[in-house]
Known about the structure:
490 residues, alpha/beta, Rossmann fold, 22 helices, 10% strand, elongated
Amino acid sequence: MxxxxxxxxxxxxxDGRFVSVKEEMRTxxxxxxxxxxxxxxxxxxxxxxxxxxxxxxxxxRHNLILLGLRGQAKSRLLRSLTSLLDAHLPVVAGSxxxxxxxxxxxxxxxxxxxxxxxxxxxxxxxxxxxxxxxLATPDVTIADIIGDVDPIRAxxxxxxxxxxxxxxxxxxxxxxxxxFALNELPDLAxxxxxxxFNILQEGDVQIKGYPVRLPxxxxxxxxxxxxxxxxxxxxxxxxxxRIGSEIRTHYPETLEQGVAITQQEAWTARGDSLRIPRxxxxxxxxxxxxxxxxxxxxxxxxxxQRLPISALENAVSNAERRALRTKETPVVPRVSDVYAALPxxxxxxxxxxxxxxxxxxxxxxxxxxxxxxxxxxxxLGSVNFRGVVGYFEAGGSLRFGDDAPAAEMLGQLERxxxxxxxxxxxxxxxxxxxxxxxxxxxxxxEGLWAQRKIGRSDERGFVAPERPRSDVELDxxxxxxxxxxxxxxx
Length: 490
């Protein structure tokens, strides 16, 4: 069925009843709730926390703000609100502010309707075209948001500067009959925030001091970092008072939620030959969870969900590179590939003073080791690897490079008694390809090292666990370090 192309055709199929954008969103939300339709597909981990609050805000026809640290899907949530808009919206063709054909606001649209009547051309907007988003920065002006007088337009058209026809509309009027999203609201200068008062409370904007009042219809949504919002107080109090609902987002609350989000977002479509073991996914996700509770990392800055996403992509790429060189299939990332993804980790968190002393790379290595130890406890914590530990205590060692072919690596692993006897607990079978078995065997070794049951050195690889040093040995080591530091100073 074709959509009406003129105002006359539109009148024959529509009663022209006014429905505000917030009422439109509410109506569509009610319909979805009754039918059991998914509300915000692709947004995971918020079903019992953020989504109910967001639904309440829409049902209440509120303007709202999402408060959360970086990487908590705030922008995705705002953009998903377009799913609550009608599939098509009629506007006066050529209108800068999406004028309603039955109630045009701008002078240009009013003149066009008065001149052409039922022959006024109509165009149709999709939900995506009714969403306007702006990143707040300190250099944003009131003209960017509200609008300004355009002297060039006045000169070309021979209009008086007080005429509406000389107005250049800002982003907010251009979001008329849609959603206006402003990201990082605290970064907006205070005097610009004042310019939002009228639209939030009275529903109108005024441009450049001229007696032009535009009662625009818009749903306003914001995002902010809670640290900025509450501690530094960059959002002025009268503006906070005019925002209907304040909703706090959060990082995944469980490892399963985090794994699901990372699996959805990470680019791992590298062909049918790629197989990512579940324990590798959990190690990658565990790094983010460990980072968020580590005292060496600034919790106020947060650890974005982009950390495990980037780390998994980089780990898969390292496994892919190795497989291309060794010509082996399937491509299976190992724990060593997670260590190879350090460049994806070190830039994703801010360090406290203690962390600065240790260094970002060393902190990241500690996080990986902690994540491996936790995953090992879940999968193999009840297994007694006495034979494996005994092998190393008897003087045995294993060393293989990060790019070692799976077959070569598996040959070494099979020399260690009981090492591969429990890989079925990892979802790996003894008759699986060598690359899967190698990844499982390495995970066992990394887990035993993380729990300090065996040792590891750069020169010899996996070895016997280090003997606990006495207080005298520790004091001697400390004195030796001080002696070297004194020698460097002199």
